[in-house]
Amino acid sequence: MPGSILLLTGLSLSYFGYLWGEASPNPSELVGSLFFWLGFAYLLFVFPLREVARSLGTSLRRSHGAWLFACYLAVHLVLYGFVLEGILAVAYGTEVLAVSSGFIITTDVFSPPSLSSALFDLVYNPSIVATVQPIFSVALSFYSIFMATVIAVLVVTNVARTRELGELCTMWGRTRSFVLLPALGVALGASCCLSVAGLLAIAAPSLSVLESNIWAYYATYFAFPTLAVFLLWFNLRAIRRISAKLASPSPA
Question: What is the mean pLDDT of residues 216-234?
Answer without folding.
Answer: 88
